[in-house]
Amino acid sequence: MGSLKVLDVTPSPEEDSEKLKKAFQGLGTDEEGIIEILGHRDASQRKKIRETYQKLYNESLIDAIHSELSGDFRKAVILWTYDPSERDARLANEALNSKKRGIKHLEIIVEMSCASSPQHLAAVRQVYCSLFDCSLEEDIVASVSSMPLKKIPQKSILQRLLELPSSGWEPMKIH
Predict the structure, then answer these.
(1) 69 and 101 part of one domain
(2) What is the CATH number of the domain that holds 154?
(3) Can you give the pLDDT at residue 34?
(4) 57, 64, 72, 102 - which has most CB atoms within 10 Å?
(5) Predicted pLDDT of residue 106
(6) Cβ proximity of 54 and 60 under 8 Å
(7) How far apart are CA 83 and CA 44, in angstroms?
(8) For residues 31 and 73, is the Cβ–Cβ distance under 8 A?
(9) pLDDT on residue 76
(10) pLDDT at 104
(11) pLDDT at residue number 99
């Protein structure tokens, strides 16, 4: 059985950035070192590490991870490194643009709409719009327009995503 290791003192973002840079250098990548750092930091700490890494090395941490890792491990580490709202926006976009169309590809959106707070969903919608130059709502409607909608309990799930209470940010209107 695994155990959770809690650090007495969390290293600074500068120290973490330096350790990550060292993990990327040399022959092979120190995957355990990457997990040791990013796997033991919360979202706000990872954000500070991303910002610090960019300042120190004039390179995006996401780009460095992308060039040094591969496969499912790379995808998992990159998704973990993003802010939660950006991660969810990217996952939603990937699902909506999947070549494997069908009800199954909407599972991530259903999970997000059911398990996330209204504030998180509003943040996801805002990030989605800024990343992909269209609203999440428009992409959902476009994606499901060719499907038999009676298979999707849209009143309880998709409309939760479409009809969030305002958080100071208004989505684009669907015509």
Answers:
(1) no
(2) 1.10.220.10
(3) 96
(4) 64
(5) 81
(6) yes
(7) 8
(8) yes
(9) 95
(10) 74
(11) 72
Report the chain (175 residues): mean pLDDT per 10 consecutive residues.
Answer: 62 97 90 94 96 97 96 96 96 86 79 91 96 92 69 55 55 48
Task: From 132, 134, 131, 125, select the one nearest 170 (Cα to Cα).
Answer: 125
Question: Domain count of the chain?
Answer: 2
At residue 110, the pLDDT reads: 87
Same domain, 88 and 75: no
Among 81, 99, 130, where does a domain finish?
81
- Name the nearest CA neighbour of 46 among 13, 8, 3, 91: 13
- 75 CB-near residues (< 8 Å, 6+ apart): none
Domain boundary among 81, 107, 137: 81
φ, ψ (nearest 5 deg) of residue 172: -70, 150
The whole domain housing 31 covers 13-81
